[in-house]
């Protein structure tokens, strides 16, 4: 086992040990909660398993640092919100709500994102099949045409945000939508597949060549996970 993989395994083992100290239950969008608190989910693969599309160092920083910050902040602000409600402090509740939305959205989005990805040895990059493949072909002509449209949407995001393949919960139709910052896909639309366009998702490896990241990420997209979300 390489030194890098060994360190990755140690890091993931430590995270698992910390998160398994209390019972878990399924939470919103697959996120896990312990006694009402959000917890950092384990990855189903090692940090370096998505290389060369996404480097192990980026995955480690993205998961252990960025996502964990959203989890910690969401829990902290949620506790402050509970205190504000107990005191009937309406001003404080209003002040806290955007922070809870941002960090809670970051947790939900990243939890889905990790599920969106898989090493090639586990099916990453294999094209969709069944109903999802049919919907993409009917809506965009082909998978390649869909990817081109999706990457155009990603490139059009100003600043930080996400692009999502979504399904309208009323009509069942699929479409591509972009969201700023950490706004989650809620309400009328159901998230099927999302790509993180924040700089922390690619800059360490691709620097200002984000178009290369948008192209490479499809090599490790987990279409099987996306297919399960389509209803």
UniProtKB/TrEMBL annotation:
Assigned keywords, A-Z: Antioxidant, Manganese, Metal-binding, Oxidoreductase
Keyword check for rRNA-binding: no
Xref: InterPro entries: Fe/Mn_Superoxide_Dismutase (IPR050265), Mn/Fe_SOD (IPR001189), Mn/Fe_SOD_BS (IPR019833), Mn/Fe_SOD_C (IPR019832), Mn/Fe_SOD_N (IPR019831), Mn/Fe_SOD_N_sf (IPR036324), SOD_C_sf (IPR036314)
Positions that bind Mn(2+): 62, 110, 196, 200
EC number per UniProt: 1.15.1.1
Cofactor(s) recorded in Swiss-Prot or TrEMBL: Mn(2+)
Top EC class of this enzyme: oxidoreductase
Molecular function per GO: manganese ion binding; superoxide dismutase activity
Domain Manganese/iron superoxide dismutase N-terminal: from-to ranges: 39-118
Superkingdom: Eukaryota
This protein's record includes keyword Oxidoreductase: yes
Domain Manganese/iron superoxide dismutase C-terminal: 128-229
Reactions listed under catalytic activity: 2 superoxide + 2 H(+) = H2O2 + O2
GO cellular component assignments: mitochondrion
Pfam families: Sod_Fe_C (PF02777), Sod_Fe_N (PF00081)
Function, as annotated: Destroys radicals which are normally produced within the cells and which are toxic to biological systems.
UniProt cross-references to PANTHER family, sorted A to Z: SUPEROXIDE DISMUTASE 2, SUPEROXIDE DISMUTASE [MN], MITOCHONDRIAL
Family in the record: Belongs to the iron/manganese superoxide dismutase family.
Protein name: Superoxide dismutase
């Amino acid at each position: 086992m390489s030194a890098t993989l060994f360190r990755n395994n140690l890091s993931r083992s430590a995270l698992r040990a910390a998160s398994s100290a209390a019972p878990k239950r399924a939470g919103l969008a697959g996120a896990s909660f312990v006694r009402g608190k959000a917890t950092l989910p384990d990855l189903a693969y090692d940090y370096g398993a998505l290389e060369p599309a996404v480097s192990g160092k980026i995955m480690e920083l993205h998961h252990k640092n960025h996502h964990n910050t959203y989890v910690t902040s969401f829990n902290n602000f949620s506790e402050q919100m509970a205190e504000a409600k107990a005191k009937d402090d309406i001003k404080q509740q209003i002040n806290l709500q955007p922070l809870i939305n941002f960090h809670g959205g970051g947790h939900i989005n990243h939890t889905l994102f990790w599920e969106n990805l898989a090493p090639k040895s586990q099916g990453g990059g294999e094209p969709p099949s069944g109903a999802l493949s049919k919907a993409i072909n009917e809506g965009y002509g082909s998978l390649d045409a869909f990817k081109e449209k999706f990457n155009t949407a990603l490139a059009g995001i100003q600043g930080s945000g996400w692009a999502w393949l979504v399904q309208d919960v009323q009509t069942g139709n699929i479409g591509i939508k972009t969201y700023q910052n950490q706004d989650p896909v809620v309400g009328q639309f159901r998230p099927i597949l999302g790509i993180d366009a924040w700089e922390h998702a690619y800059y360490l490896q691709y620097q200002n060549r984000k178009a290369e990241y948008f192209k490479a990420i499809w090599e490790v997209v987990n279409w099987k996970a996306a297919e399960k979300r389509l209803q």
